[in-house]
Amino acid sequence: MSDDLAVRTHDLWKTYPQEPEPVQAVRGVTLDVRRGEFVAMAGPSGSGKTTLLNLLGGLTRATRGRVEVAGRDLTTLGDRDLAALRLTSIGFVFQAYNLLPVLSALENAEFTLLLRGVPAAERRRRVVALFAEMGLAGLESRLPGKLSGGQQQRVAVARAVVGEPALVLADEPTANLDSAASAALLDVMERLNRERGTTFVFATHDPRVMERAHRLIRLVDGTIESDVRPAAPGVAAHASP
Amino acid sequence: MTGARASDRRAAPRRAPRLWLFCQLAVRNVRRNARRSALTASAMVLGLAGLMWTRAISDGAHESWVTGAVRLGTGHVAVEAPGFAKSGSLADRLSPAQLADAEAALRAPGVAPLVRASAPQLSLSGLASSATAAVPVRIAGVDPAAEAAFSALAGRPVSGTFLAPDNPLGAYVGIGLAHRLGLGVGARFVVTAQAAGGDITGQLVRVAGTFRSGVPDVDDGLVFIQIATARTWLGTPGAATTLAVLLRSSRATGRVVEALRADLPAGVAVLPWQEAAPGLASAVRIDDWSGYAFLVILLAIVALAILNAVLMSVLNRSREFGVLQALGLTRRETGLVVFTEGLLLTTASGLVGIVIGWGATWLFWRHGLDLSALMGSDITFSGALVSPVIVPEFRAVQVLLCLAATLTIGIAASIYPARQAARIDVAEAMKFDR
User: Fold this and answer.
1) What is the total count of domains within chain B?
2) Over 80: is that where the pLDDT of B399 sits?
3) Which of A56, A161, A216, A225 has its CA 20 to 30 A from that of B12?
4) Residues B152, B157, B163, CA angle at the centre, nearest 5°?
5) Mean pLDDT of B95-100
């Protein structure tokens, strides 16, 4: 796997054993995402977006094929190594924010750093800087229940990116937000992508996310139907290798 | 960007901060649902307070039974000639030298503080005869002063008085026996028994007082006379069949028996009350175990209630545990978060329960638990005279038992929910999003 790649899949399949017939949620997906890309995966419900995202994040095991993140094949890793890889190399942003309700905004954001054993002062310094960058300054001590949806999702993004992972996976991050909050969140993520080089892969229905994506992958029935780079005029749309 | 910073990766293996984090999460999660936590904890508090209090009351009742029994008989510890317990014969008696050795052994520094009283007894079977009847009896020759400190009966005269040193022919007679012989205070009767030489011999005595123990065998068949009179009558100068030892607590019995056995020659038997009163020992054991069985059932119910509450909490928070795994916790660590939470809740509430139980025990310790309204002024149990006022006993072992129960319940009630949390399918847990 090239150092330039954040994630690579090869002939990736995911089949759920189900009656009367097994469901093939992902069927032979081969995909490369380079570092620093801002990718949206779109498609109708049941097209396999979330399953593919879960496979990329090591949250679910592939039935067949290979997934490499940060140069490591997730399909060969045990539970402990997979957890360690998620901790150091993958950030997650979920539709429902999923902040830990008993931790403050700052504590949520620094959670992965704490798990990595980063000293408290360093954790605080990095989170406070990131909060300032994301328009969350002053909200450090608030519990999630005291934040708006948009603020919670930004804290979730901060949690995902603060450890500078190779890849941030975001599943419908704007689905629960109004237009203004969605736009603000996308601004933040775009800026993080542009200024920090953070790689984002979204699963989304949201046209606003698709519009902003630098690369748009359309999934249908678990396969890639199209893979284009609308934000790069002059570059011909191409199928993923 | 190449993934996590190198400094972060180097720090990752450190586990101590994670354990601290799990404890913090546990504390906050317990506080997060204060009402649910309080309800769950209340089962534990009540259970442990009940355990603490009932054990203290039960131990106090047993002590009361044992004390009541040994003060009617041969004490917590009986020093005798080997074979006397079985034969009851004067032939199996302690010589004056053996008796002196035994009394000296009781004065040893390791034993003396544990001893409340000791009384030499010259005890044998015989016949009590009056003008109206003759009744088989147990005759106990006792030292009036020593026996007054030892026996529960000395202070319970129904009529007359206990034996007095200046009344060598005085007899202290069970009330039932006095009725059967038609005796009142001052009346004379004859006790007859086999003397040391083998001859049947009689001794005229006079009723100094009568007593009521509430135990039929004692009231209908026991006569106290002075040991000096008995020794002269039976031809056994300076001898005794038993040196009865009353301890400050029955729990010291084993230690005293061990010390006396080590100190006294082989020709002297040292018997704990459990051997002298096996029926009572069995009754205490049975009561103890039935009490424990009841408590195990009670605590199992408490454990199930807590397990149910913790499990419901886990099932309601499956997405949260999914997030923890997505963020980098292993399955085992996710389970550990739940385990810590369950253990914290049970341990904290268990400790509160122990403190409350201790307080309740202290309240009853001051005045005792008076059951006389339910059971009358005197109760007999397994041949023992038992006070209706039970004074609970404080024992370190009770606290250890409660702490052990707390930890056992905590672990038992947390393991299954922890396993469930650890086995959560992260992708499935996140499906709740949709």
Assistant:
1) 2
2) yes
3) A56
4) 80
5) 94
